[in-house]
Amino acid sequence: MRRRRSGTEYDHRTVVNVANSQAIAVIGAGAMGRGIVQLFAQSGAPVKFYDASASAVSAAHAFVIDMLNKRVEKGRISRAEGDQSINNLIPCTRINDIADCDIVIEAVVEDLQIKQQLFAEIESVVS
Q1: Cα–Cα dist 65/85, whole Å
Q2: What is the chain's percent helix, strand, coil content, to nearest 5?
Q3: Residue 74 and residue 68: Cα distance in Å, rounded?
Q4: Mean pLDDT in residue range 72-81
């Protein structure tokens, strides 16, 4: 078991179990989306991530790579683990790129209209 800064316990094996059996996508490349992408990538899962802004996808990709490299530099993960995690990152520039995903995690701005539009679009792509 590990502890988050908030003190909540979590077990990374749960993420690994889900990640190993499912194709995963994260929609939204902001702070929360980046963190979710990194979590799944470090857990060994190829993870696709998409944002309506191609520059946000590019920035998220660079950010997560930088975070993983920092973990390697600090000795928290090995170089091999860092490289594998980086290889698990799959940036997507079209929402249709997530069509094969079993799990889609939404991490977009807290705006009901945007979320409703997004869910309708996701449903048309993955169903």
Answers
A1: 9
A2: 55, 15, 30
A3: 10
A4: 96
